Backbone:
């Protein structure tokens, strides 16, 4: 029986896990990412992390069939190079060839959001379908596209940036520099902005009470107020569902994956939220009368998606 | 040496051609499509058309390796069924099994826009790349997506409707029933609407003179006026280029095909127009500083794209 290692490089730490072919994680460990650190040191640390978890799982190096890596930034997966990653300061770092000098096995690398999508598609809510879209609703809107079981990242590996498709061309300003991206309407950041605007306009709204109790305005404020029967809160929530849904509908209209998987902080609102998004998509799906609806599901794997997706790169 | 037949089903006529593997058309012929006609009669006519062009090309049935069909509507290509086609009134017609009763060879079918995209990608301006987007700017905005040399049409074969991705969510009304689709801004129909609005607002614009000379307002009016130095005409043209470009940028951001191929009536404005679209895309491409630009090219095959793409289905 063969085992796999998945490495999830984050801005704060590097996590790795040994997994079975069925996606069971046998052992994990982590080390702190050094900002602006020497890539050579980071690779040595990664190798030692891999050795450590292999031993922890009671295995030897021969039991490991391959190592997959998920990294932030633009990745050239054919060459195994991190072309550019802003938050861990890597610039043309040949991560795969460097790690191969320590451990000569099959090693692959892809973008971290793509790996999370592959993990969710392979072992999470998308495991019954062959093509799926993973959408993360957090600080930004991240997407990963799985077509026929494989990550689609397009020319130069630089695609999959679904958060920056147009939703309202010329509308709200986006962090990317353009105006009107989906992310500028459907991220938690956008939701908080819209919540604050509505609170200013409606001094009587229960959103003020909810925010005071939570200590701040956050992505949950409008949902909680809506549940208490607050009209202004409900309006913010419904508009947000519309924004999330309209972006998903755009992608369904063009790509029609078999399933849409929703993760990230906002997905913690649970089925209550997911069901509203599903209803929006079903009503506005192009050719809604003729074409079957595309299921929208809440992602299941949470923080394990990155490790499992990275491991799935070499399965 | 083997030859292929491509059949292009249109609202007015059915065209077919015998082609080589290199995309050279050796013989073609056509018959008039009967509206609301009996599908059994249509299939018999299609078979006779195939026999006729095979003889015209100086070949026998044994020389034909396969027959490809491009049909309007939603197609179940796995089963060879036209699920629904509005303009030739077909409803669950098993076209491939029906034609196989006359000619027992490899027969495949796909949507006509997808076939045109495959034709252009295989034998036209996209032949050097493996993934491409075909955009038709005509009465509507049609798209066809080729990924790794194959048509991508997604779940139930109902994807690829890129004309109905959001451009300005909640904006101009679209024929599909939604508001703000790309088609509602980037089709020739939308351009004519915007030209007429600008003419009303600018009674002194040279667009009035151009339209009077052409006998009507059409998709060329603003381009011609702009070339004559008309400011209002230039504004309409530049806004239209922005709309076309912004939709392409959305798709590049998410899918990043290797090339975008532009066809349809408006593409006849030629390099003057295509170069402006390219410039827009290069300036607004997500990560424009880090990622190489995606080339935008004018489609080459014109009316032959359908026959060649249908034939390419069985190559």
Residues:
């Amino acid at each position: 029986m063969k085992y796999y290692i998945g490495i999830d490089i984050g801005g704060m730490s590097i996590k790795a896990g040994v997994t079975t072919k069925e996606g069971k994680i046998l052992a994990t460990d982590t080390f702190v990412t050094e900002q602006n650190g020497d890539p050579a040191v980071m690779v040595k640390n990664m190798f030692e992390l891999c050795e450590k978890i292999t031993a922890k799982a009671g295995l030897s190096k021969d039991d490991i069939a391959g190592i997959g890596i998920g990294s932030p930034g633009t990745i050239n997966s054919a060459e195994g190079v991190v072309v550019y990653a802003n938050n861990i300061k890597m610039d043309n770092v040949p991560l795969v060839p460097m790690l191969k000098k320590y451990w000569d096995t099959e090693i692959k690398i892809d973008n971290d959001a793509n790996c999370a999508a592959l993990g969710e598609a392979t072992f999470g809510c998308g495991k019954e379908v062959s093509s799926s879209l993973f959408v993360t609703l957090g600080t930004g809107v991240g997407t990963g596209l799985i077509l026929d079981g494989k990550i689609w990242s397009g020319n130069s590996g630089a695609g999959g940036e679904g958060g920056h498709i147009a939703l309202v061309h010329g509308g709200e300003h986006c962090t990317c520099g353009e105006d009107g991206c989906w992310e500028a309407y459907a991220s938690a950041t956008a939701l908080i902005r819209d919540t604050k605007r509505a609170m200013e306009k409606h001094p009587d709204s229960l959103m003020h009470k909810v925010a005071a109790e939570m200590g701040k305005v956050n992505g949950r404020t409008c949902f909680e107020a809506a549940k208490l029967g607050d009209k202004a809160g409900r309006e913010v929530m419904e508009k947000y569902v519309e924004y999330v849904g309209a972006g998903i509908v755009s992608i369904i209209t063009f790509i029609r994956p078999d399933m849409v998987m929703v993760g990230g902080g906002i997905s913690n609102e649970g089925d209550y939220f997911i069901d509203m998004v599903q209803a929006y998509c079903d009503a506005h799906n192009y050719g809604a009368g003729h074409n079957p609806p595309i299921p929208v599901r809440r992602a299941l794997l949470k923080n394990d998606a990155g490790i499992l997706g990275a491991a799935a790169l070499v399965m």
Notes: DSSP finds ten helices and 13 strands in chain B. Residues 5 and 18 of chain B are 5 Å apart (CA to CA).
